[in-house]
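Annotated sample (chain length 510).
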Amino acid sequence: MKISRILITTSLLMGGIGAKAQLNLGGHFYGEDAFRFSESKISGSARMQGLGGGYVSLGADATNNYTNPAGLGFYNRSELSITPVLNSVNVSSLYAGGTTNRSNTSPNIGQLGLIFSNSGIGTRKKRSAFAVTYSRQNSFLANTNYTGTNQRSSMADFFAERATIRGANSTTLDQEFNPNTGIASSSTAMYYQSYLIDPSANGNAPYYVMEEGLPVQQTGDIATTGSTSQWNLGYGINFDDKTYIGLGIGFVRLNYDNVTTHNERFPTGTVFNGFEYGEDLYVRGSGVNFSVGAIYKATENVSLGASLITPSWISVSELYNSHIFIDPKSGNSVVPQGAVRNIATEENVFSYSLTTPLKASGGATFFFPNKAGFITADAEYVGYRGMGIKDPQDGSWGPEQKRRVQSTFNDVVNVKVGAEYRVQNVRVRAGAKFMPDPYKQRIDNLNRSQMLFTGGIGYRSSKFFIDLAAVFNQFKSAYTPYELSNPQNYASANLTTKATNFVVSVGTFF
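Output written by the structure step:
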């Protein structure tokens, strides 16, 4: 996706810290956040991840509890399992002629599962199962940096354009700044009080940059952490060893931290040696979704599955702040000797409601004779155009965001295939998942479709199991430090991300 965190809150530009961002004046588009928090790749047990995530027509796995709860009906004994995951992410960047590379590794718990299997009642209900699971649906781990020499602009040009659009005069911007604390009540005042911009002679807009020395050496860091996860309660029933149905409820947790810094150095500057601009964003949320599914054994060798997962309705709260640190040149005629050099904005807290996409899946599994293994395939519909963002206190903001969602994203159908081959107690697995580009138009001329490849091996006995899997994913995206009215005057960092997940599942039957 194209990330442009510098546009996160035009409330700061407009001078109202407690207000929300608007789409006009370059305001933040929360549909990008909804997409980031909704995109799911492959999660679950090592068994299911080794199969490329193709689990809608398979059963007897803790992953069924949040993908297709009908699969719980396949359990004929109770199970306790844990799935540790090691996430490894490498991001390379190309920005304004400069290249960088950075890697991160993080361990976590991908899944916990406790399934209670029960005997049937009467002649038709063969078995049933109740499940409690924890699952990590998405990881936001990434640590990216960029560097390059910009011949055409500085981030200060962005500050000048934003201040000009707002139109506040210098007296107002002085009133929005407390020199004793170094805190500004608007980002416009922060730009102005850092001496990076100045109004015209009468103290009014338009605003101009104070340092005109080009080229400028630009470097930046973007560190993101967090995840979406959920606890699920599910129930599945087996009728006649042929028809399986299930339903479940998921309790969603969202944690997302994004810390960015952008540094500029002016080799030929007359006012500044350079400056640093930074933003901190912390997002927390909780919500709920529901799932229902069915699996039907059409023949001894073929099973068909279908599931529906409702949107997650999530209440979100975000905390945002920004700062500027200036490094003026000694003896310059613009920045006073006693000027505050580290200026920050007040913390901005904003709460809103987020609706993620509806997901519907259908699939089939063909089992080889003599229990030698199987081939499985799924098609997963994801309704990105149905994402919603609302402010309970403002009825007009949500529809504005909704229109942008529908003009930006397409609904997609992800395709997953997997196979397992059995040799006595040993299982060997392989799979793949294709995710089409959900954007209606290419941004930065990038195709954002993704292909994930998986593989794994496992061992099962009557008492326990252990499965290993690896998931390989490479995709392209872009990061834009700032935007200007003339697209020729700013650049984006083209990013190539290589992510590898190493997964282990260990479980015991009781």
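Annotation: The chain is about 10% helix and 55% strand.
Annotation: Helices lie at 10-14, 31-38, 46-50, 64-67, 155-166, 170-175, 187-193, 397-408.
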